[in-house]
Each structure stands twice: as C-alpha cells, then as structure tokens.
Amino acid sequence: MTRILGIETSCDETAVAIVRDGCDIESNVIASQIDLHARYGGVMPEQASRAHLRAILPTLEEALASAHADWSSLDAVAVTHGPGLAGALLVGVNVAKGLAFAQKKPLLGINHLEGHVYANWLDAVEAPDFPLVGLIVSGGHTDLVLADAHGRYRRLGRTRDDAAGEAFDKVARMLGLGFPGGPLIERAAQDGDPLRFRFPRAWLEPDTWDVSFSGLKTAVLHGVRDLGIDTDHATPQERLAKLPVADLAASFQAAVVDVLATRAVRAARVFGASRLVLGGGVAANRTLLKTISERADVQVLCPPPALCTDNAAMIAAAAYFRFRAGERSTLALDVEPNLPIA
Question: Taking the model in full, what pTM does it have?
Fold first, then answer.
C-alpha cells in the first residue's frame, strides 16, 4: 500500500489530499476562493497567493486528520509545480519542499494538467486503458493529448487564444451572470434555445487539432450590442433584465461544446484510442459530457464534478504512478507557470 499526500495551489483553490495506491481517496480537502474573486469578476493573482498562505496549514491539518494519517504512514509528498499562477504555485511548492525535508519523505513535482487526466483514476470502478485521448478543459487551459502509457504524452492540439473556461467567464460577464462563468452559463442554458443564435465555430486548418474561441466570444459581444446593451456601461442587472440570457447562454454553450466534442471524438478515432477521458473544470459541464458520449465510438470517462475542478487528490493520483516508476524530484524543484503537458 502506498499513501501519497498531494498539494494543489495552482490558481484559486488551496487543496490537500491523501490518496492510497493512486485511486482510493482517504481525504480531499479544498479551501475555495470563489467568494473572494467573485467581486472582481475573475481571479486576482496577488489576492490568490495571500489566500493560499492563510489556508494552506489549516487545509493540511484537516486532510491529515480526515485520513487518520500521521507522517510515518505516508510514503511521499506531491505538489503541483506548474502550470499556473507563479505566486500561487510558490506557496504549495515551498510548503511541500519544507514538509518533504522535515519529514524525510520523497518529493514529486506534478504537472497540473496531468493531474486532471488522473482524476479519472480516482475511485474508478475500472482504471482507464491505454492508449487514451484526454481532453483537458479549464479556465486556463484547453489541451487535447494522446497518452500511450503512464507519463507518456503527445500534445495533439490546444487553444490558440482563450481557453474554454476563460471564454465561459467572459461571456458570463457580458450576460450579467457573474463569476465563475462555467456553472452559471450551464444553469442559464438549461432553459434556453441553442438554435436561436447561430454563433460561429472556428474549425481552423484541416490538418490541425487546435481550437479557437476568440471569434466566438466576439460574436457574442456583437450579439449583445445588437440587442441594445451598452457593453461598456450596462450593469449586470440591466443585462439580465433586457437580454434573452437563456438563449444566448445556450447558443454560446452549444458552439463551444460542438467544437470540443468534434475535436476529441475525431482524435480518439484517428489515433485508435481505447478510451476518451475528460478533465478540468469545464469537463463538469454535463452537456459537454453528454454530447461527447453520444458521438464517440469508445468509452468516455469523466470524473464527478467535484473532481473535475482543481483538487489535490488528482495530484496525488498522478504522483503515485511516477513514484512507482522510481521518479523523484529534488529540493531544487521550482515553479513553472507555463509548463506544458508535453
């Protein structure tokens, strides 16, 4: 039995977890900063870093207590060292290095994007098979990857501009819905007509797996202005009162989902994947999961919503397979804000 303590502080969630054998969650504690950043309409990096400093030790103590764990029962310390906000990452990495040094435990630096892939191993009835195609969609990242073994990735495509989650946040602000945009757009779209507004899909070149959402975002902006809203000065209340918010949300969501589903399903088919796995906060969107599942020729796996968003259990899960392969990080481990998955 191998128990790994994971730490995640890449953006606006302070999280600590203990995971056994890469799949069994013994504790998974998350201190959210949503209320802090909602007043700004987005994540404020300096505020995020300060909030991590305040929350990291209480979160660590709660995770250890919830798992009934002491340091003698833990085998390693894993931490996200990129990608993410530099100041936020520094909090987690420095705490992890201090703990590993003080407790004489191996240290493993983990890629945040890899963690989202490995959320599919957590509490899974059956572990995913290789090769697999992974669609990682979050506020800061949209990546399509091919994995043929643990820790072996090829990045097929990525966003050329806004990440899917970033587009959700920006459109939610246009509609007066608030932050974070993903769940608010999804909720509003439930009562909307996805065919009312024919927003564009950017398919780019025939030979690329990349995606783009900036044109879609601009199309929504023009649509909102055409409906009589001054996007520079209108209050959220005015937007909600005057706009067909449900139809706009549903039409925007349909465009994002169509592009992501088309790319992911085609990649799984072209590269002969045995599974298609989803990860990241936008993967919590049930319309995205339903659409991909209906179109795919292979089994589609997606963590429950609580494990799609940032958490430390996914970091510990990814670390387990690297730990088992003999990988270790040194105390010279540093943050890499722009770390790619491959």
Answer: 0.95
Under 8 Å between Cβ of 45 and 12 = no
CA 70 to chain centre: 30
Q: Which domain holds residue 146?
A: 132-302
Q: Which tens digits make up the pLDDT trace of 96-115? A: 999 999 999 999 999 999 99
Beta bridge partners of 171: none
Tell me, yes or no, whether 100 and 158 share the same domain: no
Is the Cβ–Cβ distance between 191 and 246 less than 8 Å? yes
Polymer length of the chain? 342
Whether residues 205 and 81 fall in one domain: no
Give the single-character DSSP code of 184: H
Q: How far apart are CA 30 and CA 60, in angstroms?
A: 10
Sheet with strand 24-32: strands edge to edge: 24-32, 13-20, 3-8, 76-82, 107-111
Asked if 143 and 89 sit in the same domain, the reply is no
Give the CATH number, domain containing residue 215.
3.30.420.40
Give the tokens for residue 329.
């990080």
173-195 per-position pLDDT tens digit: 999 999 999 999 999 999 999 99
Q: Do 151 and 286 share a domain, yes or no? A: yes
